[in-house]
Amino acid sequence: MRFVRTISPAAPDARYSTVAIFLHWAVAALILAAWLLPHARELFPRAAGPAIINLHRSVGETVFALVLLRAAWRFISPPPSLPAGTTQFVRWSSHLVHGALYVLMLAVPVLGILFTWAAGHNISFWGFAEIAPPAWINPDLHDTFRNLHELGANAIIWLVGLHVAAALVHHYLFKDGLMDRILPARRRSSARGRDAMI
Q1: Is the pLDDT of residue 197 over 80?
Q2: What burial letters (b/e) apply to 128-160, b meaning 16+ CB within 10 Å?
């Protein structure tokens, strides 16, 4: 089985929908923000810690909601097919990474909510709809939930890095136009203009 072969460029109309592109980049930005916020807490006065963590939780809950919306939209408006000539290895790898990302993007916020409840704290969404810990939450599982939450969050960052690396390989090595499909239209059209001038 060959891992790499010449790949035909994607068809000009093989492009994600505007909604899918927006959700892709919104989720990416929010995941980065959610991951950075707890690490940035050390840069601020101690008194700001609870506000930063509350912001981290709200961002994580927003990621959860947008990923559900993104999954629903993916069902309504399926993504374009991979370019002709893409090997089975690349196809399987792509599906595996995307599937793992979806699972983790849903599981990590849920684990965050669970360990927050296990610590005896309420959960709120951007300061609204505050929900107290349910009776079935076992406080003894706080450390387990927290460790799984942090492990999952770090796994997301590694998978995102792998995803970005693969996109760059497709763009600069395979030159198959795969990355252009998810770039905002303005960036994509300007890139086409540069290519036409060469």
Answers
A1: no
A2: eeeeebeeebeeeebeebbebbeebbebbeebb
Chain centroid, CA 116 distance in Å = 22
Residue 174: how many other CB atoms lie within 10 Å: 20
- Amino acid in the structure at residue 127: G
Q: Domain range for residue 153?
A: 18-197
pLDDT at res. 186: 55
Q: Classify residue 6: in a domain, yes or no.
A: no
**How many structural domains compose the chain?**
1
Q: Strand 123-125 relative to strand 128-131: parallel, antiparallel, unpaired?
A: antiparallel
Checking if the pLDDT of 187 tops 50, the result is: no
Torsion angle of alpha carbons 180, 183, 187, 190, nearest 10°? 20
d(CA 198, CA 193): 9
In whole angstroms, give the CA distance from residue 155 to residue 169: 21
CA dihedral angle for residue 105, residue 109, residue 110, residue 111, rounded to 10 degrees: 100
Asked if residue 11 belongs to a domain, the reply is: no
CATH assignment at residue 188 = 1.20.950
Amino acid code (one letter) for 13: D
For residue 13, tell me if it sits in a domain: no
- pLDDT, residue 13, reads 54
Q: Specify if 115 maps to a domain.
A: yes
Q: Check residue 33 and give its pLDDT.
A: 96
